[in-house]
Amino acid sequence: MDENSMAKDSADRSGADSHGPDSHSADVIVVGGGFAGVTAARELARKGVRVLLIDRNPYHQFQPLLYQAATVQLGVSEVARPLRDIFRGERKVRVVVAEVTGVDPRAKTVTTADGGTYSAGHLVIAAGAEANFFNTPGAEENGFPLYSVEDAVDLGSAFVAALDEADRGAYDGELHVVVIGGGPTGVETAGAVAETIKYVIPDYFSPELAGRCHAHLVDMLPNVLNAFADRSKEYAQRNLERMGVQVHLGVGVSEVTREKVVLADGTEIPARITVWAGGLKASPLIAAAGLPQGRGGRVDVDPDLTVPGFEGVYVLGDAANMTDARGDRLPQLGSCAQQAGKWAARNILADRAGRPREPFKYVDKGYMAMVGRGSAVAEIGRKRMLMTGPLAFLAWLGVHVVLLSGGLQKLRALVSWPSGFISHRRSYVLLPRERS
Ligand SMILES: Cc1cc2nc3c(=O)[nH]c(=O)nc-3n(C[C@H](O)[C@H](O)[C@H](O)COP(=O)(O)OP(=O)(O)OC[C@H]3O[C@@H](n4cnc5c(N)ncnc54)[C@H](O)[C@@H]3O)c2cc1C
């Protein structure tokens, strides 16, 4: 029996072509509607498998563009898409919006904060990651992480509020924005803040206020973009400094307060706003599920993406330490999570058809980071073909349009990105939230 007839047979036997409103069971439960979870659910549904997709948010968020939302270059609807829109008309996928509080990987049940319990034959855990503050005193209380749409709105609102306060004279000092972490997120955020200071604040406020604003980037390593080639690292640092970012390298952060960032060598950088891009750890759900944790709290999965010792449980994307056929660790990237989602679906179909699972074959598309307008680094493909400048900038735009989910979102991005880059307009409204 092939995959399609197998799946149809399963649907026929369950007597359900779609989920009823009270259905708490399915063939597969997917926890997390990020890159990995959405892709897995879509692939399974296409083959007739009934999926329950559970996420705490009613939307799928697009992390690569969060720094643009945080600097008000894009609106929330350009960096998030409703899950119900992604799966509209897809009767095999039931979206449940709820906080998952417990997973029993042996019974294959999932519990939600409102007391719901859901069960399935297979579990796919794709709950992503969260900021890792590495116990740095004051970092969690006073720093702004950047992992979710809420984080981006909090950071953007604080930045706009700080500018308004400075403009009306609530304080007449200098406005320092300190970004901690020199990886792609930190570099992109620091670059976007510097561009805002250079091109936006003089127009929207005054050149005098722009003269009082400063962007900093701090990392304990001796260079930015540590995973990249030396030429990319040098290019990114040179361009950040050219744009006015003060780069502090080779020294860690020992404390973050409301007014400053203290470095391990005693240097104090005044900070009105501190952005924490210093690292990630797996979702706390992994520990709650009692799954074996490896580096970063993530699950060391087998090459076929299953959890050793837990039949029918898959962990994907940022929640997992995934390896390729040679045993090399795979990166925490959107395209890797997407491909893992597709592969897990394929292996679940194999399980259901009684065929052997296959080890995940990752197609390495390389690394990229945006530094500023017309300025980016890209190392394309497994062979790391190096690009910098406008060509890399265009490659970054192209790759991220492809990663975006849905034609409408791609179209919106194609219109709003270039116009935002050219005009430096900031026309989006951020509604401030009460920070949790
Ligand atoms: C700021 C930033 C910039 C990035 N830039 C790039 C880039 O330029 N290119 C690139 O390829 N990659 C980039 N990445 C990495 C990429 O976004 C991640 O690797 C990818 O999102 C991982 O996908 P995922 O599906 O594993 O997790 P996520 O996309 O994080 O999805 C996890 C989902 O699980 C849900 N969830 C978590 N816990 C619970 C719970 N308890 N109950 C219910 N739901 C829950 C969350 O709401 C979320 O929807 C970036 C990441 C960040 C943070």
UniProtKB/TrEMBL annotation:
Cofactor: FAD
Region described as Disordered: 1-25
InterPro entries per the UniProt record, alphabetical: FAD/NAD-bd_sf, FAD/NAD-binding_dom, NADH-Q_oxidoreductase
Superkingdom of the source species: Bacteria
Domain FAD/NAD(P)-binding: start-end pairs: 27-341
Molecular functions (GO terms): oxidoreductase activity
Transmembrane segments: 391-408
EC number: 1.6.5.-
Any Pfam family: Pyr_redox_2
Broad EC category: oxidoreductase
Keywords: FAD, Flavoprotein, Membrane, Oxidoreductase, Transmembrane, Transmembrane helix
Entry similarity comment: Belongs to the NADH dehydrogenase family.
Name of the molecule in the record: NAD(P)/FAD-dependent oxidoreductase
